[in-house]
Amino acid sequence: MDPRLQGLLVGILFGIVLQRGRICFNSAIRDVKMTKDNYLMKLALLAILVETIGFHLAAQLGWIKLNPKPLIPLAQIIGGFLFGMGMVLAGGCASGVTYRIGEGYITAFIAAIFYGITAAAVKGGPLSFVNRWMGKPITTTNNPGGFYAAKDGAVNLTLANLLNINPWIVTIIFALLLLIVLVFWKTTERKVSGLNWITGGIALGLVGVIAYLSQKTYPLGITGGWVNLFRTTTANLDLTQPIPYNWEGMEIVGIIIGAYLAALFAKEFRLRVPKDPKTFVQVAVGGILMGFGAGSAGGCNIGHILSGLPHLAISSIVFTIFAVLGNWFMVWYLFERK
């Protein structure tokens, strides 16, 4: 099957799960601080738990090679913090604004446009000099169990290859810690019309595993897909040449289609336009910050948090910490400082 068709189908499945679970990492992180609501956070943690076991099992069986994001400390620190601030302003994370386009949110469309344009500019476009300033990746030659993809012998850093121990050791410890949190952290009560935090978390994790088996090089992502869509659509106008859309670009199209179909079926689709014109400016600025942050950090909330943490990647751990700090800073600045 054509990889682009696979990406489209995985994206449709991803979009359905996102819409029916009302899954947004901005809300998950923000709610823990603002309202002490852990419902979406527990959903995200359960998805990460499923993927942690699923990714390493697939690698153990030889179906994939684990391919964690490269560690560039300055990039993940600055990029993560900017991304965290941006998703509060945009009213959604990278996946959140993408699937909400399918629900009819005009603000989500605007945020996604500015997000994609900025990310494309940073990743190989006119702002690519930013990545050169951030420095070069820190790698290792350790490859315990042969689980990891290597380029000229270099492997991107994870907790396992940093310590040069069997990846299953840190995987099991991490999974047990997540399980303890999920069991003993009392869940905030919430009425849901779609997937609850358990079914939504399991479904999201399984989609991530399916994506890895499909794409082989990495599981789910958002930033690279928007970059592919913008670059391909605007740069290749020669109709005699094959259209170079890739798996991740078609995944974005699939997310929007899947979310639209799910919202339509649940009678939740309608065009939503904000009453205050200032909202358009705010979400545009949020999209720019997210695009700049994800473009420089090498991934967004999906690439680093949902897909990166299950690798126990050092880069994704750093990004997650600073994305949370950036999110909470902007929450404080906008809603709590007065």
Automatic annotation (TrEMBL):
Q: Which locations, inside or outside the cell, does it occupy?
A: Cell inner membrane
Species name: Caldanaerobacter subterraneus subsp. tengcongensis (strain DSM 15242 / JCM 11007 / NBRC 100824 / MB4) (Thermoanaerobacter tengcongensis)
- Report the membrane topology from the UniProt record: Multi-pass membrane protein
Q: Which GO terms describe its cellular component?
A: plasma membrane
Write down the Pfam families for this protein, in alphabetical order.
Sulf_transp (PF04143)
Q: List UniProt keywords, sorted A-Z.
A: Cell inner membrane, Cell membrane, Membrane, Transmembrane, Transmembrane helix, Transport
Which taxonomic lineage is given here?
Answer: Bacteria, Bacillati, Bacillota, Clostridia, Thermoanaerobacterales
**What InterPro entries has UniProt attached to this entry?**
Sulf_transp_TsuA/YedE
UniProt cross-references to PANTHER family, sorted A to Z: INNER MEMBRANE PROTEIN YEDE, SULPHUR TRANSPORT DOMAIN-CONTAINING PROTEIN
Name of this protein: Predicted transporter components
Give the family this protein belongs to, as stated in its UniProt record. Answer: Belongs to the TsuA/YedE (TC 9.B.102) family.
List the transmembrane segments. Answer: 6-23, 43-64, 70-92, 104-122, 165-185, 197-214, 249-267, 279-306, 312-335
